[in-house]
Design brief:
Length: about 190
């Protein structure tokens, strides 16, 4: 019997445009981002169709994931911080001042290289992603599972699914509302 897991990224967060900020100010920006809901536009048709195929909805506990579930008109059966995004570090310098998205890119690269001051390390996030993948695989025995999650964590979960013999069936990018479908044809 074939099993299906759909990893979907949340919709676009509702965040005020920010001017250039320092690396130190990223702490507040990250906290605001983690509390943000999404802009409540209808989800793309492709996302709605994939979501409708799921018999079980799982969500990260982040507000942007939970409001994405609401926009899809669904109710999550499972809400767990296990599926939350890998955290971003920040620094203490007040200069230079860059856009928050430039800092996010820089800090994500630094995080992947081992910089994880006061947050979950990349290695710990990989272990959490493995646990998340195992949980999703277990839930997939009940029918197609939809996870409303996050960009980096979904990619980390996907690596574990592929390592466990799942195959990627469909992929529509890495933007907001993007999704990837994985199937397992094993026993």
């Amino acid at each position: 019997m074939s099993k299906t897991i759909i990893l979907m990224r949340h919709g676009q967060p509702k965040m005020a445009a920010r001017e250039r900020i320092s690396m130190f100010e990223m702490k507040d920006w990250i906290e605001q981002y983690n509390r943000s809901e999404i802009i409540r536009h209808p989800a793309p048709d492709a996302s709605q169709q994939l979501a409708a195929a799921a018999t079980l909805v799982v969500s990260s506990s982040a507000p942007r994931a939970l409001t994405s579930v609401e926009v899809l008109g669904l109710k999550p059966a499972v809400v767990d911080a296990l599926f939350c995004e890998a955290q971003l570090p920040y620094g203490r310098w007040r200069l230079p001042r860059l856009s928050p998205f430039t800092w996010a890119f820089i800090f994500r690269v630094l995080w992947l290289c081992g910089y994880s001051r006061n947050i979950e390390s990349a290695g710990a996030a990989r272990l959490r992603a493995n646990t998340a993948a195992q949980r999703l695989q277990s839930l997939a025995g009940e029918g197609p599972v939809l996870l409303l999650g996050h960009g980096v964590m979904n990619r980390m979960i996907a690596k574990h699914l592929l390592a466990d013999g799942w195959t990627r069936q469909q992929h529509n990018g890495s933007q907001y509302w993007s999704a990837t479908v994985y199937q397992y044809a094993g026993v």
